[in-house]
Design a protein that fits this description.
Blueprint: E1 16-22, H1 47-62, E2 70-81, E3 90-101, E4 104-113, E5 116-129, H2 130-145
Antiparallel strand pairs: 1-3, 2-5, 3-4, 4-5
């Protein structure tokens, strides 16, 4: 992306960003949706929540580089989750933009807690025009409702 009249910085590979959060009961496996298979699982940081946290970190990293009306959406997740994190422990997600192909962005991601790494992998996002995306979604909803 090039600079705009608003002097947005240029998006380049090598961009790094880190976010931190404390695991609460709402981030644990038993709290996931209404899926009964999770209800009797240990109350540790859920893989789905870790992935969401890593996505959030990528989103925050990209915000200064997007034009008005642009957002990013996740298109691919390839991550391991190798260690459990208990409620009350802080986790950190560190992301690095490693490739840009047009509007397709690839991040290397690492998540860790106080004891060490808990997950890592690659995450791809795509830059979208929010208005056009919402229009396509409405069209899809209308088309499927007519069936």
């Amino acid at each position: 992306m090039s600079n705009t009249k608003e002097s947005r910085p240029t998006l380049r590979a090598g961009l790094r960003h880190t976010e931190r959060m404390v695991v609460t009961p709402s981030h644990t496996v038993p709290q996931l949706a209404d899926w009964p298979g999770f209800s009797d699982m240990p109350p540790v940081f859920a893989t789905a929540m870790m992935v969401g946290f890593m996505e959030q970190t990528c989103i925050q990293a990209l915000r200064p580089y997007l034009e008005e009306g642009q957002r990013t959406v996740g298109t691919h997740v390839d991550m391991s989750h190798v260690a459990a994190t208990p409620v009350g422990m802080e986790v950190e997600a560190a992301v690095e933009l490693v490739d840009i192909q047009g509007k397709a962005l690839t991040f290397k991601v690492v998540c860790r807690d106080a004891a060490g790494p808990i997950g890592q992998g690659l995450h791809r996002r795509a830059i979208i025009d929010l208005q056009r995306f919402e229009q396509r979604l409405a069209e899809k909803t209308t088309a499927t409702a007519a069936r």
